[in-house]
Design a protein that fits this description.
With 268 residues, the chain is α/β, with parallel strands linked by helices. It has ten helices and ten strands. α5 packs parallel to α6.
């Protein structure tokens, strides 16, 4: 479903801030893969996601989604193939619009938009059924302004919007980092449920090592713009944070030094 081949990107070339953000990165996701991506600051994990989403154009390499090369497609054109949930709950929704209006925007993504905009009763009933799956009571608040929702409710709505049209690939960019731990776990569990029920292919960037191990069928660890670990199957099922750190040290030749990720080790 996703093939990234020999991807490289250099930021701020020729300046004192020059940085090789990705170095010849290659990775393939099979249909139905749920891959978690972890790494320290500057490891390249968000840059990789942004290249896949079309935010950044790589200097070298190729990106294929469902066997179609999208390397030079604009972010807008690529959006019809992708669902994306950002770190900031405010980014994926229109706060001044109602819940059903936000869902209608997502439902019409990639379609021609004429002068007609009305939401039919059948469509409204479908939105209500989809919202029930979130178990947040939002199905009874279809006309409520999204700005009135809590961060967790808003992120759950964004997740639903991102998956409403069954995207080829779902990108989760530290989508629980701005939430409190209890709410974050609810949104993660909801993410896993939606991905499994719809058979989606997903890539989730996280700074939380426990979450990277607990969720998905495959774990990728990045360091200094490269993939240094790719763990799946029984090895991932039996993985512990301590074992992951040891494997990282063997693969990279250095200790994993990222305060944000290491602090998450003590959180339940």
């Amino acid at each position: 479903m996703l093939k990234v081949k020999n991807l490289s990107i250099l930021f701020n070339a020729g300046t004192i801030n020059e940085r090789q953000a990705l170095k010849n990165v290659s990775v393939t996701l099979q249909n139905g893969d749920f891959v978690t991506v972890i790494g320290g600051n500057g490891a390249g994990k968000s840059t990789l996601l942004n290249c896949i989403a079309g935010v950044h154009t790589p200097d070298r390499g190729h990106i294929y989604i469902d066997e179609t090369e999208v390397t030079n497609w604009s972010e807008h054109k690529r959006a019809k193939l992708l669902g994306r949930v950002f770190q900031d709950p405010m980014m994926g929704t229109a706060g001044n619009m109602g819940i059903e209006e936000n869902l209608a925007l997502a439902y019409r993504r990639g379609n021609f938009r004429g002068l007609r905009w009305g939401i039919s009763n059948a469509e409204r009933a479908m939105y209500r059924e989809q919202l029930k799956r979130l178990e947040l009571g939002l199905e009874d608040r279809l006309t409520a302004k999204v700005r009135l929702l809590s961060g967790g409710q808003r992120q759950a709505l964004t997740l639903l919007m991102a998956t409403l049209k069954q995207p080829k690939l779902l990108l989760l960019d530290e989508h629980t980092a701005a939430l409190d731990p209890k709410t974050a776990q609810k949104v993660l569990a909801l993410s896993e449920k939606i991905i499994a029920e719809n058979g989606l292919t997903a890539m989730m960037v996280t700074h939380n090592m426990r979450d990277a191990i607990a969720y998905g069928n495959r774990l990728i660890m990045m360091n200094d713009g490269e993939i240094v670990l790719d763990i799946s199957g029984e090895e991932k099922k039996n993985l512990t944070v301590e074992a992951l750190l040891r494997a990282f040290e063997r693969a990279s030749g250095s200790e994993f030094a990222n305060d944000r990720a290491l602090l998450s080790m003590g959180k339940k």
